[in-house]
Amino acid sequence: SSDLTQDPPVSVALGQTVKITCQGDSLRTYSASWYQQKPGQAPVLVLYDTNNRPSGIPDRFSGSTSGNTASLTITGTRAEDEADYYCNSRDTTGYQVVFGGGTKVTVL
Amino acid sequence: QVHLQESGPGLVKPSETLSLTCTVSGGSINKLYWSWVRQPAGKGLEWIGRLYSDGTTNYNPSLKSRLTMSVDMSKNQFSLNLKSVTAADTAIYYCARCIATAGNNWFDSWGQGILVTVSA
């Protein structure tokens, strides 16, 4: 089981906007980060500390948080954005790291 | 740009110890956190544990009784030992650089991963 709960698989039309969420009590205290993972590849950090993009990550990726829910939004979705997306944060004790179960994003 | 590379046996027998090493290049291991994350086939990511360059560790409670992580500053490497493995430990194992702040903990660089199968 995971302390962070993510959405079931979602589909988005090419060029449209998709928002996926990550829920957990620890998110009231700690910020979330997000990873993109394509089949057969290692995860790639796309957002850290809620809404910060590492170098090289397009600005169509953005994040937000409200209460116990963190969100990742992809605006103007491209075919290459099709992937599994995982959130992570600390657990409620602050000493452990947890991942959400992942959300598969399919681009139609 | 830091580069991480996992190495170790791809096949481990049940009840034995899984041992992996992560070699870091392009940057020093010093004064940073480093982690192991695993992923069973078709499943999500599971945090295994992290260690600081001084050897301080935090382990996933579900693995803590079987887990040891260590660092070798002279080789710019860190290692994972998981004892008494079962088929449930079969997974791709990733090493990653961990950025830890007061408010969060994220992984900004990852190795390519190594598949470890537990089987007789």
Keywords:
heterodimer, A: 108 residues, mainly beta, six-stranded mixed β-sheet, four-stranded antiparallel β-sheet, 44% strand, globular, B: 120 residues, seven-stranded mixed β-sheet, 11 strands
| Class per helix and strand makeup of chain A | mainly beta
Element order, helices and strands of chain A? EEEEEEEEEE
The oligomeric state is heterodimer
Counting DSSP E segments of at least 2 residues, the number of strands of chain A comes to 10
Compute the CA-based radius of gyration of chain B: 14 Å
Number of strands of chain B: 11
Largest sheet of chain B: 7 strands, mixed
Percentage of residues assigned to helices of chain A: under 10%
* Distance between the ends of chain A: 30 Å
Apparent shape of chain B: globular
Question: Major sheet of chain A: size, sense and barrel closure?
Answer: 6 strands, mixed
Mean pLDDT across the residues of chain A is: 95
Q: Output the helix-strand order of chain B.
A: EEEEEEEEEEE
Q: Mean pLDDT of chain B, as a whole number?
A: 96
Q: Unreliable segments of chain A (pLDDT under 50, ≥5 consecutive)?
A: none
Q: How many helices of chain A does DSSP assign?
A: 0
* Poorly predicted spans of chain B: none
Description:
The complex is a heterodimer of chains A (108) and B (120). By secondary structure, chain A is mainly beta. Chain A has strands at residues 5-6, 10-12, 18-23, 33-37, 44-47, 61-66, 69-74, 83-90, 97-99, 103-107. The mean pLDDT of chain A is 95. In chain B, strands 2, 4, 5, 6, 9, 10 and 11 form a 7-stranded mixed beta sheet that branches. Chain B has a 4-stranded antiparallel beta sheet with strand order 1-3-8-7, with no helix packed on it. Chain B has no helices and 11 strands. Chain B has strands spanning 3-7, 11-12, 18-25, 33-39, 46-52, 57-59, 67-72, 77-82, 91-100, 105-110, 114-118. The model of chain B has no long low-confidence stretch (mean pLDDT 96). Chains A and B meet through strand 4, strand 8 and strand 9 of A and strand 5, strand 9 and strand 10 of B.
